[in-house]
Amino acid sequence: MNFPFSHRAKDAASPDSVPAKKPSAIKRFFWYLLFVAAVVAACFWLFFHFIGGQRRTFEEMRFVITEGEGVAEIGAELENVGLISHDFYFSAYSWWVGSEGRFQAGVYTLPPNSSLREIVYVLARGAANANEVRVTFPEGLRADEMEKILVDNGIVTAGAFVDGASVASAFDYDFLQGVPKEQGLEGYLFPDTYFFFKNTGPDAVVIKMLDTFKRKAADVLQNFSAPQSLTSHEIMTLASIVEGEVQTPVDKAKVAGVFFNRFEIGMPLQSDATVEFATGKQGVNPAAGDLDVDSPYNTYKYAGLPPGPINNPGLDSIRAVLNPEPSDFFYFLTTDEDEVIYAKTFEEHKVNIAKYL
């Protein structure tokens, strides 16, 4: 008997009987990776949005990328000069924005208080100051030696810098008030790293170096009382002699003490560095005949200080004169290995000469 309206079990082949398909394992894994990537991207964006936007306080600054430097070296130097808090941030952000292969050698001007993002943007543009040159003057150079560096870099013409620095009274700085009118600026051309445009001209170079002296050294001179009541100019003169004699801060303080010991008993300074200045034989130990050269800079022949500095000393030498190390030493010599040997008496000094020289 047929029952057309009877309820029968659903046919196995009926569409309603097929269970819902579950996503395949591959699709689930794909969506999982997509989710993780989105989270990582969001974390990176948030991290660099805040880290990259942080600003460190600094004035407009020149930054140099040298030939062959990569992201790691650039980041390390940025951290070293205090422009960023950690080189990892620079490397990671450069990679994140695709700038790691775009940094080119050159001198760059970074705006004041730049953020990490702004620093990367400036450096990655490759817009270096093509006409700007970085020059470094080591401590103890004379004005004519500084000029050679300037000429070699196309900043001044031969003779211009020495001529421009020949009259101290032409420049209005408080720390130059005690410099005799006939003296030049030797001693006050502060040794440092500078950035100059090519063909800058001597006056602009001199002013920049005097401004640096004012910023870095003038306060040191004003805030200390020199032994034996030396004037500022005398301090700079003695500092230049110390600079010409020894290299390390420890030895500079000791040698300054030796010179003050000689002052106290009226003994000539007997500095080889001053004789080299008088004879023009720089870097050569004075011969016996050189010690007799008739020059006010010959401290073997004339007691007391020479008329002015014999080079341009750094802060270590200035501080050494202001804070000499007390001792009983009156003599010293420097070995071929740059070790300084001290002696209390001339007899001890002669023994040291025979032993070390």
UniProtKB/TrEMBL annotation:
One GO cellular-component annotation of the UniProt record comes to:
plasma membrane
Sequence similarity: Belongs to the transglycosylase MltG family.
Provide the taxonomic classification: Bacteria, Candidatus Kerfeldiibacteriota
Q: Where is this region: Disordered?
A: 1-20
Kindly give the PANTHER family that the UniProt entry links to this protein: ENDOLYTIC MUREIN TRANSGLYCOSYLASE
User: What is the reaction catalyzed?
Assistant: a peptidoglycan chain = a peptidoglycan chain with N-acetyl-1,6-anhydromuramyl-[peptide] at the reducing end + a peptidoglycan chain with N-acetylglucosamine at the non-reducing end
Enzyme Commission (EC) number:
4.2.2.29
Gene Ontology molecular function: any one: lytic endotransglycosylase activity
Mark the transmembrane ranges: 29-52
Main localization of the protein? membrane
Protein's job: Functions as a peptidoglycan terminase that cleaves nascent peptidoglycan strands endolytically to terminate their elongation.
Query: Which InterPro entries would you find in this protein's record?
Result: MLTG-like
Q: Which HAMAP family match?
A: MltG
Write down what this protein is called.
Endolytic murein transglycosylase
